[in-house]
Design brief:
With about 140 residues, the chain is mostly helical. It contains eight helices and two strands; from the N terminus they run αααααβαβαα. Helix 6 links the parallel strand 1 and strand 2.
């Protein structure tokens, strides 16, 4: 809002910058602390040709900070989760934040750090016409 802590008369009360940083980093710390499985890191060579193409394409775009939108589709048992886990582990080991969202809780539970879209982005289940975002601009989720 264009104001600083010193704008207001709080007497001798001091705001420690470390406290501000910690509160704004909660969501980011959680994402950076998702456990990385060594099995998922070391299985890139086990991806089939199509999985490897998707892995290489997405990995290259993310590590080069290039924009992209990807949609992986296939019947159950074709290795989508295997590919996702391998990709996530190899990105996260480089301290790259990869936010994992899914439309259902079951799908989200299958991936490390996975959450439903409405949970992660505070999307209400009943949306009204003039409703605005539930994410504060100053929150750790906005920073994430």
């Amino acid at each position: 809002m264009g104001k600083s802590f010193s704008t207001f008369d709080f007497g001798d009360l001091k705001l420690d910058e470390i406290d501000v940083d910690r509160s704004n980093m909660k969501e980011i710390e959680e994402e950076l602390n998702i456990p990385i499985s060594s099995e998922e890191l070391n299985v890139v060579h086990m991806l089939n040709t199509e999985q490897r193409y998707a892995y290489d394409t997405i990995y290259r775009r993310v590590t080069k900070n290039e924009r992209g939108s990807f949609f992986l589709d296939g019947p159950g048992g074709t290795g989508k989760t295997f590919l996702y886990k391998t990709l996530l582990a190899n990105l996260r080991v480089k301290d790259i934040i990869a936010i994992v969202v899914a439309s259902s809780g079951i799908a989200a539970a299958n991936l490390p750090g996975g959450r439903t879209c409405n949970s992660r982005f505070k999307i209400p289940l009943d949306i009204e016409e003039n409703q605005s975002s539930q994410i504060s601009k100053q929150s750790s989720l906005a920073e994430l």
